[in-house]
Design brief:
alpha+beta; 95 residues
Amino acid sequence: MPVPRERYQQEWERRRLRNRVHLTIGGCLGPCALANVVMVLFDGRQAWFHSMGTDAQVVALYDWIETLVRAAQFSPPPAALAAYRFTGSTWEGRA
């Protein structure tokens, strides 16, 4: 599925995150078996998501990012993103 680049950009600008959140759309992040991978790095913690190709997923991701920025601390991603989360480059325990 194609990456919804315009939606990522629109949400970033609409939410006025330009001076608080860095957005980079690039090539492969490493997990080659997965597509449309997003990595969020916040307060030294990583959260990786795969198959992020729908508008609803992008909105849920930005809703969570805004929650992190407002709280100024890391919190787990919401249920809407849980099925797409995986560990990318560090080991995290799983329930």
